């Protein structure tokens, strides 16, 4: 077959390919993209090596022996879909003696508008297009399965309660006429399928799975999806014994100081201009003068809580300072959740052109005098042991059995939350042990870096869900969900591939911190 020299010859070549091989090549639209670009309007004809490669690959695909079978509505039916930046494809198969048989292959190119879709949207379009293209086989047929390598589509097409983007929602509605189930098929199985078409060797399945699973660069660049089981804190013995504190930013540059009582869920809110110890300590003095000195104060690790002045202040007051795990705000979840709610109140007041401080105080009165979902009683009633009035009429309550009431309701609410959180498929108890190498998430989100640092840390201590890891003379503390233990461990080969000299690896201590500064990835 001679190489085309004019645009008309390329059109003739594509016409022949469409007749001979379009129904036998799964990714035909993607493979012909470079050739089709030569036939576009206002495009100069220029044949390059890239077009030679595309033509050669098409010729080799045409030589592959693919036999199509007849469709049988009584057999299990599967549809495999995929999408590239320039095309979508689908394969209709049926299981015959536990072996898939191809019924039909189809693909089409994407328009200029469709090429600007996100990858998730292109994959969703492939599902809808495949069902409609194979309509003669699938409509009215028994339940069939659609396989995709985009896991998000399982939720988008399978959950009726999820809020969908408008474009994807239209595609999902178009597939409701079909009795289908959508499943996720990871890319590593595609790697194995590709190799089976070309080569075979002993223990190929195990070797491919281990190679994909132990890919060090892939583990550094892929975020983890598992989470630790939810750990619930014990209820304090009395009100105002254990407090949580946190700061929130305001639009005018000031800050909200939010203090929460773990027992009663009573919240104290104040506004300050700075988070320095000089500005924060007088506010705590004011709060303690009104409600008393607590036994324990839980905060994050930011200023001023990490400073010597605040530490000295708490020691002088006799208050135990409990810091949560660094970069794990879920440990102070109750205060963080309340912070989102009160910020929403402030934003709503600004939209309505109202005094946001006055609206915030109205919200605080409503919150403090409304039954809490965990305790079953209003926070103000629990803290002050009396009914705090608001604008609504209320009947007096008996306060004698208040402690038993709160304890029972709190235990039931926490058990319900833990059951709901731990029943998720991604909940998995961490198996990281002391002495193992782990990958730690990078903190700088402004640079195009990988999710994990390529230089590993070594776990030196583990306490509950908090681990301590060291790398040379640097020590960090993280929740056990954040670090990641690589499959297959850390060997010299991946570290040498990062540019660390062999001589440095053989020394007792490798200055990984210095190396990471000199070799940015």
TrEMBL record:
- Record-linked Gene3D superfamilies: 1.10.340.70, 3.30.70.270, Ribonuclease H-like superfamily/Ribonuclease H
- Which CDD domains does the entry link to? RNase_HI_RT_Ty3 (cd09274)
Q: Provide the protein name.
A: Transposon ty3-g Gag-Pol polyprotein
Integrase catalytic domain: residues covered: 235-387
* Sample GO molecular function, one term: endonuclease activity
**Listed GO biological process terms:** DNA integration
PROSITE patterns in alphabetical order? INTEGRASE
Transmembrane stretches in the record are none
**Domain of life where this protein originates:** Eukaryota
What is the source species?
Plakobranchus ocellatus
The record's section on Pfam families has:
Integrase_H2C2, RT_RNaseH_2, rve
Coiled-coil parts of chain: none
